[in-house]
Amino acid sequence: MFPNFLPTAVRRLTEPTSIALAQSIQRTAIATPLTNQPVITTYVKQGCGRTPILLIHGFDSSVLEFRRLLPLLSGDNETWAVDLLGFGFTDRLSGIAYSPTAIKTHLYYFWKSLINQPVILVGASMGGATAIDLTLTYPEVVKKLVLIDSAGLAGGSPLSKFMFPPLDYLATQFLSNLKVRDRVSRIGYKNQTLASIDALSCGALHLQMPSWNQALIAFTKSGGYSAFKLEAISEIVQQTLILWGDSDKILGTEDAKKFQKAISHSILVWIQDCGHLPHLEQPQITAQHILNFCGEPH
Predict the structure, then answer these.
(1) For the chain, what is the domain count?
(2) pTM above 0.90, yes or no
(3) Is 120 part of any domain?
């Protein structure tokens, strides 16, 4: 059975990993300083033991992004994935200024409420920028850091110049078009066969949540994640694993080397024959690198 708070289109999912993860999505009320009203937050928790792993999804995505990776990590590890504020299936309350600062604040209080011990923090794409931001602001939260084809060195959103009426609404309508989303998804993969109907369903399911477009407009108007200065990134003291698809057509490959140079305790691993989404395109290899990294002495 699927949770009743998910859109009915969840029944269109066909791949076993997608169905299983959707069925395991939970939600809880998280109190934050952002509003007097708690934020009903969706997340997945599987496994137990060892240092918890916390997975952070990318832009306009959800916990379903980790449908192939999370089961491979949770066999011997307590593994979490959470829908960021303004994204996925987490409630989008009115009156909140959706911005990187608000996302970081909500994420911190989610961690404090449910986990409250240092984690292996894994951020993919925009989730990498979120992970960096959280690590720099709340270093006590993060034991080790994993960046998967991470944003953070290229600032802002190209959509921001369209975010004024009526173009802001039209921009979100454009992004909600399934043909557009399919084209964008295909750019993310090197192996085009992975851009399946099921993958498209996973990537579009959260669009049916209330106020999806308003929150996306607000986040984009905020400027999104500005480029971190290399001096700031160099303040990361945690051991960091940088995983990067060698055929990334979304962010390219140069930022991987810049992250490695800036973060003193970091290693860079190239995921071969892979685009922007190693956790979806090469999940077994990606999981093994993360598990090996989790087990290293600290």
Answers:
(1) 1
(2) yes
(3) yes
* pLDDT-based confidence at residue 268 (cuts at 50, 70, 90): very high
- Domain containing 120 equals 8-295
Distance CA 156, CA 154 (A): 7
Residue 229: how many CB atoms within 10 A of its CB? 11
- Name the one residue in this structure whose structure tokens are 């930022």: 255
Length of the chain (residues): 298
Place of tokens 């999370």: 70
Cβ proximity of 51 and 113 under 8 Å: no
In-domain check, residue 263: yes
Report, as an integer, the average pLDDT of 237-262.
97
Answer whether residue 272 is part of any domain. yes
Sign of the alpha-carbon dihedral angle for 153, 293, 144, 110? positive
Q: What is the DSSP string of 140-201?
A: GGEEEEEEES--SSS-S-GGGGG-STTHHHHHHHHHH-HHHHHHHHHHH-SSGGGS-HHHHH
Q: Are the beta carbons of 88 and 63 closer than 8 angstroms?
A: yes
Alpha carbon 16 to chain centroid distance? 21
Q: Is residue 251 part of a domain?
A: yes
Cis peptide upstream of residue 166 (ω within 30 degrees of 0)? yes
Buried b (16+ CB within 10 A) or exposed e, 266-288: bebbebeebbbbbbbbbbebbbe
At 277, the pLDDT band (50, 70, 90 cuts) reads very high
Q: What is the CATH number of the domain that holds 261?
A: 3.40.50.1820
